[in-house]
Amino acid sequence: MADKPQPSAGGDRGGFGRGRGGDRGRGGGRGRGGPRRGGKRDEEKEWVPVTKLGRLVKDGKIKSIEEIYLFSLPVKEYQIIDLLLPNLKADGKVALANFLDEVMKIMPVQKQTRAGQRTRFKAFVAIGDSDGHLGLGVKCAKEVATAIRGAIIIAKLSIIPVRRGYWGAKLGEPHTVPCKVQGKTASVYVKLVPAPRGTGIVAAPASKRLLQLAGVQDVYTQSRGNTSTMGNFLKATYAAVNLTFLRLKFSSNPCLLSSLTQHLLLLDHCYLRYAHPGHVATDSTSTTTLRGILDSLAVSLPSCLLLDCVISLHRD
Questions:
Q1: Which stretches are annotated as coiled coil (predicted)?
Q2: Residue range 114-131, pLDDT digits in tens
Q3: Number of domains, the chain
Q4: Which of 75, 102, 109, 199 could form a disulfide with 218 if both were Cys (CB 3.0 to 4.6 A apart)?
Q5: Residues 218 and 121 in one domain
Q6: Structure pTM?
């Protein structure tokens, strides 16, 4: 009859003309269009450091990454890099404008098993702030997104300082590598040669991008070997950039001299407390003689070598 109400499209389940499920939609607000269960991924968890270095960084005792490089401390938490170098943080996204991080290459790799071939994806990610810091990470995973995320974390943990210098007159900011350096990985050799200002980066696209992230503006490059293997080519360039600080004279770095003075003030205490009695006597005469020997060594040895001497005495 005309006066009888027509059945709703949602049936007897409370549709009220809005389709199956009524106002709730499919799944009662849990399906498509509704809130998902366990939204922990969207919430940013607070970092709880588990290493001594991480606690010092979070408490603000260490305010620059150069303090970590000065004492060669191992970085085992990538959140340390996020705090000390905020320009590197991109939350896993590629930010080409600020040279934050870039996926250099994604390649499938296979392994033969009893069940057949197992395919995974290998990601190469370079990260840098274009101001003297560079990192390179490599990660394999079953999914591309997981491999990229893991490679970004490894790249942050492998951040190295990049020393820059001049080609001729020391005018303006450093713009090139300080000297000739050569890195090697497998059959690939990459050599970096200082270039005059305005030359640019004369290199292949892969190594050019890596040098841009490092903050080098002018450089000549020379490569040989199987450079078509992208992974080895990137690693060789990274190794060459890493050598820029290993060619540094000790007398030209005042930071090492000041830190060495602090170490010398504590060496007497370290020796008297940790060294064996057979190595160092505890009387004041021997301590004074030891201090004189260390003062004579301080003009030619970096602090890390003196600390290695202390550590070697601990192990004897």
A1: none
A2: 999 999 999 999 999 888
A3: 2
A4: 199
A5: no
A6: 0.67
